């Protein structure tokens, strides 16, 4: 009689949360399957995807589980509950790990019994020189010093959410992930709670590779502001300041990232005007191409250059509210202050152009819960974007701006360019203007049409 051999329980469970990751998931899984360490399982958590993410993962022979409630912590927790490994390794779906990664992680935990969680640095495989330079300096110079300071003040090191490992028993002891936090701040939260179980380590010389798409889309400054603001808010106040990951918020939240169109129609939007020189150049291009756009105006700029704001409306374009002074710290102000700032801009726009708008774009794309509630009570829809580059950086070449926009465009995309720059009326926007010409030409050649955002329904 032949006894049935028991299946080998994996030492490591690699858990990959994935929401609409069909362009990245295959490379991620293949990098895991190329590991020198063999005693592991791969679990892809399909987090409400409506693309081919789960199909691609299943065809590669990995375990796929489904978590329909969208949110990173929901997906992480789902993976934890089905995982069988003693060590849980979490990586993002756009991450590629080197062949020795799991072996290094496993041996590190074997040798360090005091460690309950560890993470490591990363590099971008599709980032430009600015973000790559910043990343190298951050991990090589700043982070070791900061971790030393944390040790002195008796604070735990912080787990980096994009790639980290944790002992399954310790994660279970603290009740798993906090599902009330959807995205920003979740890594700080888990760090604070699991540090009560043991030490958190940072493996300085173990690099993974990931996509810079969020930085490319929102810009380096905006993205870093979101991460660091939430980190310190979680560290000090034990709650995040900003909304969860913008890419998983629904339209029912009154926040719009793209229009609901399956046709090849996009919306061109312009921020930080009116500008006496460059807004007029934008208007000339749009008139020549017979395109209607949407201009998110700063109230103070409207007061200084009312004639340009009037021209925008006269030429058939739509206007949105972009605050009165475009302050970085506006989202952190009280609801009373926020109301006054938005209302003042609303009145300046109306008294100048005769147009009322229900569209608001937060300065730098940053929004807090109380800012959202204030805008909602005032009847505004918050309009962000799904397609933006660093065109606001003067030295960014027109060809690079255009290439990023055109390569990321989809039906319904909301594209952001800047005809102004905060309250700096003398800022050079020539590269953004030249990029606009290229973008319009190439999108028309691809069969795209253009619409202004006043066509968005208020349902």
Key words describing this protein structure:
459 residues; alpha/beta; Spore Coat Polysaccharide Biosynthesis Protein SpsA, Chain A; TIM Barrel; 2 domains; six-stranded parallel sheet; 16 helices
The major pleated sheet works out as:
7 strands, mixed
| Secondary structure tally: strands | 18
Tell me the CATH topology of the largest domain: Spore Coat Polysaccharide Biosynthesis Protein SpsA, Chain A
Question: Within the largest sheet, what's the order of strands?
Answer: 3-2-1-4-7-5-8
Helix count, per DSSP? 16
Shape from CA axes? elongated
Proportion of residues in helical segments: 25-40%
Rg computed from alpha carbons, rounded to a whole number of angstroms: 24 Å
How far apart are the first and last residues' alpha carbons, in Å? 68 Å
Under CATH at level 1, the class of the largest domain stands as Alpha Beta
Structural class: alpha/beta
Q: Which stretches of 5+ consecutive residues score pLDDT under 50?
A: 1-6, 243-253
Average pLDDT works out at 89
**What is the count of distinct domains?**
2
């Amino acid at each position: 009689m032949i006894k049935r051999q028991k299946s080998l329980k994996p030492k490591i469970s690699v858990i990959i949360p994935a929401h609409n990751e069909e362009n990245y998931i295959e490379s991620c899984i293949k990098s895991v399957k190329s590991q020198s360490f063999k005693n592991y399982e791969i679990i892809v958590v399909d987090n409400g995807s409506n693309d081919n993410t789960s199909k691609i993962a299943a065809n590669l022979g990995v375990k796929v589980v489904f978590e329909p409630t969208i949110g990173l912590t929901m997906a992480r927790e789902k993976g934890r509950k089905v995982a069988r490994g003693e060590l849980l390794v979490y990586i993002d779906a756009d991450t590629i790990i080197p062949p020795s990664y799991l072996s290094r992680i496993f041996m590190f935990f074997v040798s360090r019994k005091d460690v309950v969680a560890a993470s490591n640095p990363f590099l971008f495989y599709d980032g430009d020189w600015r973000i790559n330079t910043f990343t190298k300096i951050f991990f090589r110079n700043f982070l070791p010093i900061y971790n030393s300071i944390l040790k002195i003040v008796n604070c735990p090191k912080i787990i980096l959410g994009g790639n980290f490992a944790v002992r399954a028993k310790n994660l279970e002891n603290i009740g798993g992930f906090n599902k009330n936090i959807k995205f920003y701040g979740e890594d700080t939260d888990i760090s604070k709670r699991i540090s009560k179980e043991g030490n958190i380590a940072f493996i300085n010389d173990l690099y993974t590779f990931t996509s810079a798409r969020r930085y490319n889309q929102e810009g380096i400054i905006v993205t870093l502001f979101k991460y660091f603001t939430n980190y310190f808010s979680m560290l000090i106040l034990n709650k995040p300041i900003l909304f969860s990951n913008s890419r998983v918020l629904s339209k029912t939240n009154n926040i719009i990232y793209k229009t609901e169109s399956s046709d090849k129609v996009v919306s061109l939007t312009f921020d930080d005007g009116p500008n006496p020189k460059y807004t007029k150049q934008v208007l000339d291009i749009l008139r020549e191409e017979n395109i209607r756009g949407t201009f998110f105006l700063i109230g103070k700029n409207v007061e200084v250059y009312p004639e340009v704001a009037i021209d925008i409306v006269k030429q058939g374009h739509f206007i949105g509210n972009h605050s009165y002074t475009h302050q970085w710290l506006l989202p952190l102000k009280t609801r009373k202050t926020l109301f006054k700032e938005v209302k003042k801009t609303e009145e300046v726009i109306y008294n100048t152009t005769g147009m009322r708008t229900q569209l608001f774009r937060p300065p730098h794309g940053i929004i807090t819960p109380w800012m959202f509630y204030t805008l909602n009570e005032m009847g505004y829809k918050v309009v962000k974007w799904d397609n933006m580059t660093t065109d606001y950086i003067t030295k960014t070449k027109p060809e690079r701006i255009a290439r990023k926009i055109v390569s990321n465009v989809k039906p319904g995309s909301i594209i952001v360019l800047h005809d102004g720059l905060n309250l700096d009326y003398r800022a050079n926007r020539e590269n953004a203007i030249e990029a606009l010409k290229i973008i319009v030409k190439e999108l028309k050649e691809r069969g795209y049409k253009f619409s202004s955002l006043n066509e968005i329904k208020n349902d």
